[in-house]
Design brief:
The complex is a heterodimer of chains A (about 290) and B (about 450). With about 290 residues, chain A is mainly alpha-helical. Chain A has helices spanning about 1-5, 10-35, 55-60, 60-95, 100-115, 115-125, 135-140, 155-180, 185-190, 195-225, 225-230, 245-250, 260-285, and strands at about 35, 50. In chain A, about 35% of the residues are buried. Classes of the chains: A mainly alpha (about 290), B alpha/beta (about 450).
């Protein structure tokens, strides 16, 4: 018994079993379903094996292609904005002379604690062009954009996402910044580097692994975005905010109940996420902590 | 008594139950049910809706009368649809009573998600009175293929509301709004007349909502989803295209943001005084007249849905209560449904915020005095009955309707936002609906 308890597998075992059951098995089921034609509500025995036909159809489907494009644009915009704003906030929070740091961080956490679909509902009220608070405030500057319009709907979704997750990036970067060694910065100061130069040549390279984590996590999440879009715009107007997850949901549930087709789309989304994550790790994870 | 013996007893007494209870009062029936089914627990799946709130207000009396306890599972209506189907696919038997939207009935009846209820109705005493339910609801909401699958619990048609004070101020006669063209003229007249005022507030959100708004014009203008009596797709007929064009034109006089309006935004905008007209579900009139929430309560008049070149038509929409085929407590589920939707309890139901479904309540002078829009509801229902008699479902209640609705909703939204002309949008819609019907084997 003692020997068993000393083995790492004894301690990891239960966790591995649980993880396997709740992640691997459903994923295998997903792959299996993607090769079938099966409609929601019909019994499992009614499924029909169709091989790769679902995938062939999807690759030719215009709706799918535009959804992928839209999702990539959305991810780039929201993660990009989150990173820039998050980094600025992190720089601000790590200033030596900052008072009330704890309170500020506490306030920052609040958007993250809101359930995404509720965030979507709240902002649906805020963005209402007639009686929403956003246009009320903007009214003082004499502008009242139609946040519900075809042109601005995507922006409204991006803004909600940025509102909710910039604090996440900011906090990760803050902890990263606080843990950086002081020496390179002192050296830079001695060498006469300006603030901007310090950031570009010292801070960012040192922070690379932390940035990698923040970007990786946010990108994986942004590619899967569903809740906010569902509550805020429902994928509309028209197809303005039809992201890939929305399309999968519609195909698998309300629109057509085609679970097999939706599973195939989900498999492709999975492949995209894995590919992008690997790309990130390769590009950013290279040489750790080197100062150029 | 232990549950097992109750179950055995109820099975044995099923025949006796139906014979004995035909002439009993509500109390007698309650006692019988308590003896047989007391101690059973049922789970009820419902959407967030005024009728759900009314049922919850009445459940204490039900539990006391019958000894059946009720567990609630309440969620937003689109989630409800998916949840019911998922539970059914997994055969969990989790839900006993399910609230079923009229547009799901084809799908649910076909996939045997819910039970036919004709036998239960026949064996329930007179205080239930199935025939008192408005005819358009009985036939148009709860029946499919000649069988009853759901008891209408919240019926609605659609009508127009207008701001009496604004019409008086500008000397506009509300009774001049008889046709769709009159409605368009009125909306145009009032749009921008005052700061922050739009002509008419309706739904425009992609999907189920824009279809609801657009269909108010579809049938009066002679449009159709299918050619009546057939399953030939008719979404690209000139009349259908014209009705979509009309809707797009009408929405020029709608509040900013109409592209994303569900019934909530449409009604709230009207309630806040930002629109002169409103055209939506009769079930929402209580919101408009609620002085604690509505800035225009008491200043609103109502009109039946305007007619068009093809005559009068009215919407039939609403909710049913149905029994899940996987339920392990079907008799108890029926007891709940019978109690909640009966004539005996109808007045209490409406007083608790429920949505009226019965002629007896709609014509009750006491209620008419309190809810002054009841006569217009009756008028709207009469126009709705015209479609029912022609054999046209306001939204075809076939199993494929949710998908067809989404296809129409997406294309109508493309037309509303100007991405496509109504003609192009309906051509696309025709192809999509054709392929849906073909895949379904029609």
């Amino acid at each position: 018994m003692k020997k068993y308890m000393e083995s790492p597998y004894a301690w990891l075992g239960p966790t591995l079993v649980v993880l396997f059951t709740i992640t691997i098995i459903p994923t295998l089921f997903l792959f299996f379903t993607a090769l079938h034609h099966w409609e929601l509500g019909l019994p499992w025995s009614d499924r029909v094996f169709v091989g790769l036909r679902n995938f062939v159809f999807i690759f030719r489907d215009f709706l799918f292609q535009s959804a992928i494009k839209r999702t990539l644009v959305y991810t780039l915009a929201s993660v990009g904005l989150e990173f820039i704003l998050g980094f600025l906030i992190a720089l601000f929070l790590t200033r030596q002379s900052l008072k009330w740091k704890g309170v500020l961080i506490g306030m920052l956490i609040i958007p993250m604690t809101v359930t995404p679909s509720i965030a979507g509902l709240i902002w649906r009220l805020y963005f209402n062009p007639t009686y929403g608070i956003v246009n009320y405030i903007l009214g003082f500057f004499n502008i009242a954009p139609n946040w519900y319009s075809y042109d601005l709907a995507m922006l409204s979704v991006i803004l909600v996402e940025v509102w909710q997750w910039t604090p996440f990036v900011a906090l990760i970067l803050t902890s990263g910044l606080s843990a950086l060694p002081v020496t390179p910065f002192e050296a830079a100061k001695v060498d006469g580097a300006s603030g901007l130069q310090t950031i570009w040549y010292v801070t960012l390279p040192l922070l690379r692994p932390i940035i990698l984590i923040a970007l990786l996590l946010r990108t994986m999440d942004a590619l899967k975005m569903f809740d906010v879009v569902f509550s805020l715009t429902g994928g509309g107007p028209a197809d303005a905010t039809e992201l890939l997850s929305m399309l999968i949901y519609r195909t698998g549930f309300y629109y057509s109940g085609q679970v097999g087709m939706a599973s195939a789309m989900a498999v492709i989304l999975l492949v995209i996420i894995i590919a992008l994550s690997n790309l990130f790790i390769r590009v950013l994870g290279g040489k750790e902590g080197e100062v150029s | 008594m232990r549950k097992a013996s109750i179950l055995a007893l109820s099975l044995a007494l099923l025949m006796v139950f139906s014979a004995v209870s035909m002439a009993s009062t509500l109390e007698e029936w309650g006692a019988e049910v308590k003896a047989k089914l007391g101690g059973t627990e049922i789970t009820v799946a419902m959407a967030t809706h005024p009728s759900t709130d009314a049922f919850r207000a009445m459940v204490a009396e039900f539990e006391q009368l019958t000894g059946i306890t009720v567990r609630w599972d309440i969620m937003e209506e689109l989630y409800l649809h998916d949840k019911i189907l998922t539970e059914h696919a997994a055969a969990t038997g989790r839900y006993d009573v399910v609230m079923m939207d009229v547009v799901w009935i084809g799908e649910f009846a076909n996939r045997k998600v819910v039970l036919p209820l004709d036998e239960y109705i026949a064996n329930t005493p007179d205080w239930f009175n199935f025939e008192d339910i408005v005819e358009a609801y009985r036939a148009g909401l709860g029946m499919y293929n000649g069988q009853v699958y759901g008891i209408p619990s919240a019926g609605e048609s659609a009508f127009v509301a207008y701001r009496v004070d604004l019409f008086e101020k500008y000397g506009y006669d509300p009774n001049s709004i008889q046709t769709l063209d009159d409605l368009l003229a009125a909306a145009e007249f009032f749009h921008g007349k005052e700061e922050g005022l739009s002509g008419i507030s309706m739904r425009g959100r992609r999907g189920h909502h824009i279809v609801y708004g657009w269909f108010q014009a579809l049938y009066p203008m002679g449009g159709n989803v299918f050619h009546p009596g057939t399953f030939d797709v008719a979404v690209n007929t000139p009349e259908t295209i014209a009705s979509l064009q009309y809707f797009v034109d009408l929405m020029k006089y709608a509040p900013m943001g109409i592209e994303n309006f569900s019934h909530e935004e449409a009604t709230t905008t009207f309630m806040q005084g930002h629109a002169a007209l409103w055209f939506d579900a009769t079930a929402l009139a209580p919101w408009i007249e609620d002085a604690s929430k509505s800035a225009v309560a008491g200043k609103v008049g109502y009109l039946p849905p305007p007619t068009g070149p093809a005559g009068a038509a009215g919407a039939v929409a609403g909710w049913n209560l149905a029994i899940s085929t996987n339920s392990k407590n079907k008799d108890a589920a029926w007891a709940f449904i019978a109690f909640m939707t009966s004539e005996a309890k109808a007045e209490e139901y409406v007083r608790n915020g429920g949505v009226v479904t019965r002629k007896s309540v709609l014509t009750n002078p006491e209620f008419v005095a309190e809810y002054h829009y009841y006569p217009q509801i009756l008028e709207s229902l009469e126009r709705a009955q015209i479609l029912v008699e022609k054999g046209i479902d306001w939204r075809p209640r076939i199993p494929e309707w949710p998908r067809i609705g989404e296809a129409l909703g997406l294309n109508a939204s493309l037309a509303l936002t100007g991405q496509l002309t109504p003609e192009q949008a309906m051509e696309r819609a025709e192809r999509e609906v054709e392929s849906i019907m073909r895949m379904a084997g029609y």
